[in-house]
Amino acid sequence: xxxxxxxxxxxxxxxxxxxxxxxxxxxxxxxxxxxxxxxxxxxxxxxxxxxxxxxxxxxxxxxxxxxxxxxxxxxxxxxxxxxxxxxxxxxxxxxxxxxxxxxxxxxxxxxxxxxxxxxxxxxxxxxxxxxxxxxxxxxxxxxxxxxxxxxxxxxxxxx
Length: 159
Description:
This protein has helices at 2-13, 28-34, and strands spanning 41-43, 51-54, 63-70, 76-81, 88-92, 107-111, 132-137, 141-147, 152-158. It is mostly beta strands and 159 residues long.
């Protein structure tokens, strides 16, 4: 009985992983970048952190990737805001990227500029111009999303 009571108390106090993101936690650069798309996309807090900061286009300035959900289709993905373009690039979230429109990955992180190991069944690894975004489906797959100087590309890391 005591064990059950402890489990119930712990479950009550554990955060539920709400997907709501407070506007106060969104960097100004991301907020202004996403403004033109605000009616279609909402920020998603389904993964912590809900945004990444890196130099994805290798211009020496901060760029951001933020988790979003397409409010019409409930498909997940990210918006990348490059400081060099001042515009948003939608990856997933209802927009086709590497044959996917719903990027339901469970973890992500900045992959620092540098050598990339050869992926599973892929060609030669890319040469990264800047940082990349590593997305992971634990125990299933992982990939790098990287900027090639003109557009974002996908490089499969593992299956």
